[in-house]
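Collaborator request log, item 7. Partner lab (contact: R.S.) asked for a structural prediction of Chloroplast stem-loop binding protein of 41 kDa b, chloroplastic to inform their binding assays.
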Amino acid sequence: MARMVALQQNQLSFSPLASSLSDFSGTRLHSQIQLKRKAWQPKAGFYVSASSTKKILIMGGTRFIGVFMSRLLVKEGHQVTLFTRGKAPIAQQLPGESDSDFADFSSKILHLKGDRQDFEFVKSSLAAERFDVVYDINGREAVEVEPIITALPNLEQYIYCSSAGVYLKSDLLPHSEEDAVDPKSRHKGKLETESLLEAKGVNWTSIRPVYIYGPLNYNPVEEWFFHRLKAGRPIPIPNSGMQITQLGHVKDLAKAFITVLGNDKASREVFNISGSKYVTFDGLARACAKAGGFPAPEIIHYNPKEFDFGKKKAFPFRDQHFFASVDKAKHVLGLEPEFGLVEGLADSYNLDFGRGTYRKEADFTTDDIILGKSLVTA
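Returned to partner:
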């Protein structure tokens, strides 16, 4: 049974947890399980060397990006604390992770329990701890960030997870870091946060991912396709299917977050992070099939204007070209994505969906509307 140590002081709770998580190398996992279908072999695990040891706070960290990033930081010897509301376990064993690796990680990770909307608690608790670096991977509004900056006047670096969704829609692609941004986008809070960090004179770095995929993804990106492929259903794709988009693997994103730590070249800079290749919607459907060892899918194109889906979303991507240049990250930071698209999708499938550990059950309601079929109720 995992060892748990907890220290509670007022609302503050620190706990080096022990459960069971470990190496999330796709290669190791593939050797441990037998898949019914032939799937592409994922690449080996990744490892990045960061700078000197830091006392690091991660805002969030128990779901997707933070799970992989925190393991790299702990492996590098940093003292890592997750700030969460405590609704999810601070550590849980990943597929393919050995018991010993997980026990090592969970014995070192710390927990600061609280609600980041409770600004007074944030200020008092963080001021008492004096963190060197903050990784903010769940901040959405500038008002959530100001108390953190106030509490940590000697902060060395604030590393922020923004979004490529901040760019103004344009006919000229790919988006680059110098492109115009959209102050009315649904990600405007992230833009305002970047502006706040600059205005406060903080040593900040902002990462702007495009679409993120990989094991533990809670957004219906690759899972949306895998559900349909597993069920042997056609894949409905809006309009021509030639819309171009871009996906970046979560492990490559975690690597980018580690690379900017203590990196002078990343000071007060914005970086797009994603895969090197762009892909059409139809191409993504075929890539998912190849990654999971499924037959080539039947693809159905439809005009979304001809349907009323109510509040349901019929397709997980925005119906437009949407991709960004990662040249700056390559040239300035020396970053090169490890995962090609099919290899990355295979890593996700083998470590997650292929094991039956997807986030949501399949819902083909909108598919049936598109295909002109009646729903079959049990």
